[in-house]
Fold this sequence. Notes:
The protein is α+β, with helices and mostly antiparallel strands. The chain has helices at 77-89, 146-157, and strands spanning 11-16, 19-24, 32-33, 38-47, 50-56, 67-70, 92-104, 109-119, 128-135. The strands form two sheets. Strands 4, 5, 6, 7, 8 and 9 form a six-stranded mixed sheet that branches. The radius of gyration is 19 Å and the shape is elongated. Zinc ion binds at residues 4, 6-7, 9, 24, 26, 29, 31.
Amino acid sequence: xxxxxxxxxxxxxxxxxxxxxxxxxxxxxxxxxxxxxxxxxxxxxxxxxxxxxxxxxxxxxxxxxxxxxxxxxxxxxxxxxxxxxxxxxxxxxxxxxxxxxxxxxxxxxxxxxxxxxxxxxxxxxxxxxxxxxxxxxxxxxxxxxxxxxxxxxxxxxxxx
Length: 160
Ligand SMILES: [Zn+2]
């Protein structure tokens, strides 16, 4: 951010509340760009004994992940995750169960991950171009981002 969105003055580095931040050079304006992490909802979608992983059109080939999306203003995360499942997969989800909350510093996000059950025919929206259906007992997580939620989901399922 080069210019202040409030008064158009230059933004300059400033040490504020223990952190180096970007702040408006006009002290009377006082705008600080905190750049706080953005919450993202993620859905591990279970359908007919399988988990639905999807490939985003912008990702390299062969990469599949769970369904994710940004919350709308004022939206309950548990409702937002069902909305994303419907928008992206065309499935009506139900029983969203919180898996956990995961930092994703590289993307400046905080991931709020749910297990969502769903039924019906999958109809991908424009953001997705392929899916991979993984049997529940073959599902494996990975060590960053939403993969940590998948790991916890798998570990919880395998508890006696
Ligand atoms: Zn300003």
